[in-house]
Design goal:
Belongs to the PHF5 family. It holds the Pfam family PHF5. It is a single chain. This protein is mostly loops. The chain has one domain (1-71). The protein contains no helices and four strands. The N and C termini lie close together (11 Å).
Length: 71
């Protein structure tokens, strides 16, 4: 994410219980390095990044989330 999307920044807060989501376009992609090579650890995001209109959104592009995010 940070490598290919320089406008996106990590919030660096303590992760909560919320699970990061990905849209159809980014499904299966590692959220850290944008590769499709065996992402296996579930992404946890902070409660503030999953609040209100951000709930269930893609962590890369902000689109509607359809699957869980892994890294």
């Amino acid at each position: 994410m940070a490598k290919h999307h320089p406008d996106l920044i990590f919030c660096r807060k303590q992760p909560g219980v919320a699970i990061g989501r990905l849209c159809e376009k980014d499904d299966g992609k590692c959220v850290i390095c944008d590769s499709y090579v065996r992402p296996c650890t579930l992404v946890r995001i902070c409660d503030e990044c999953n609040y209100g209109s951000y709930q269930g959104r893609c962590v890369i592009c902000g689109g509607p989330g359809v699957s869980d995010a892994y890294y």
